[in-house]
Amino acid sequence: MAGDEIKGTTHGTAPVPLSVLDLVTVGAGHTATDALRTSVALSKTAESRGYHRYWVAEHHSMPGVASSSPAVILAHLAAHTERIRLGSGGVMLPNHAPLVIAEQFGTLEAMAPGRVDLGLGRAPGTDGATAAALRRTDLDRGADDFPQQLAELIRFLDDDFPDGHPYRRIHAVPGPVQATSPGGVQSPHRPPVWLLGSSGFSARLAGTLGLPFAFAHHFSAQNTVPALDLYRESFRPSAVLDAPYALIGVAALATEDEREARRQVLAAALNMVRLRTGRPGLVPTPEEAEAYEFSPMEREFVDSWNANVVHGTPDEVRSGLDDLQKRTGADELMITSNAHSGAVRLRSYELIADAYGLPADVSTQPGD
Q1: Rounded distance, CA 141 to CA 146, Å?
Q2: What was the pLDDT predicted at 368?
Q3: Residue (of 21, 18, 58) closest to 39 by Cα position
Q4: How many whole angstroms separate alpha carbon 154 and alpha carbon 204?
Q5: How confident is the prediction for the chain on average, in pLDDT?
Q6: Where would I find the beta strands (DSSP E) of the chain?
Q7: In the beta sheet, which residues pair with residue 25?
């Protein structure tokens, strides 16, 4: 049935499936190795507790974000997990040749059959100068050509360029061409394509193509409801989905103590202040954030930013997530918990799982 590899499973009292977005954040005093070890531990925790999928996002030239190579990280996580869906949230397609992405995610699909998602964005995931260094010679054209790049990528994934097309004899391997070779057997799965967005462009495109849509509520909250409305209004049933399916990325952090949650999100907000003012760095400690003298403009930004971070005790976070889901009608909530410490991030996901009564080990549940 259309959508079987897309729609999630709800556990406990959660209103919709819960998933994880990992930015592989690096805190001051820690290394990228530490951050990646946290990602492995978090992916295993997410799998055991019933989170549906685990995505990593492509970013570049940001010292506090160690996820510049999603395919490499996902291959590592695939070796440490067994059931949870793994994917990109997302790969920034204008940075890459579509054939390369088809090959990378075909390889991931061969490593973890039936549990790989390919989420695609049209932004560079960085600043203009870094985008140019990624060999995007025409930055404006990269975003404008996104629909054409997307169509080309899907053709490579399905191996169905029409006769006469210059790429007709070019094949993404691993991929469907292996099934047409003498003695060939090919996996029945291919990574579902998701479109990501923080405005209306990808929402409309996803709806028109009948693809699942992921919206970046965690940094574009004011556009969430309009974009989801546009997606649903534009939706046309396809071989992929017979009805719209939209998840939203949500910044959320739970701690046992409300004051501690405020300390942690203040540090994450200071990191954003520095990023937005051209001073990207490692995620500061809560102590550094408390000692920092915010200017009036910076304080205004922090207050606005943290207003869209669901944080507090587990009950407060659960209530905030419930309210957000009701307000947006999202079919899935993808939670990103950003903090200086990997231990704090891990604990947050455990506390949220406990608040919703998610199983201690989903693999032991009936039917699994």
Answers
A1: 8
A2: 45
A3: 21
A4: 18
A5: 93
A6: 18-22, 53-56, 85-92, 116-121, 193-197, 213-215, 246-254, 310-312, 332-336
A7: 65
The DSSP code for 87 is: E
Q: Which residues of 50-73 are buried (b: 16+ CB within 10 A; e: fewer)?
A: bbbbbbbbbbbebebbbbbebbeb
* Higher per-residue confidence, 324 vs 361: 324
Task: Enumerate residues 6+ apart whose C-beta is below 8 A from 12.
Answer: 50, 353, 356, 357, 358, 359
Residues 6+ apart with CB under 8 A from 180: none
Per-residue pLDDT at 265: 98
Answer whether the bond into residue 90 is a cis peptide, omega within 30°. Answer: yes
Q: Which two tokens stand for residue 267?
A: 């540090």
d(CA 253, CA 258): 10
**Tokens found for residue 271:** 């990191």
Q: What spatial distance separates the first Cα and last Cα of the chain, rounded to whole Å?
A: 20
Would you say 189 and 157 are in contact if contact means Cβ atoms under 8 Å apart?
no
Q: Per the structure block, which two tokens stand in for 139?
A: 């930055």
24: amino acid identity, one letter: V
Task: Please give the full DSSP string across 183-241, using - where no structure is assigned.
Answer: T----S--PPEEEEESSHHHHHHHHHHT--EEE-TTT-GGGHHHHHHHHHHH----SS-
CB-count burial class (<10 Å; 0-12, 13-18, 19+) for 164: exposed
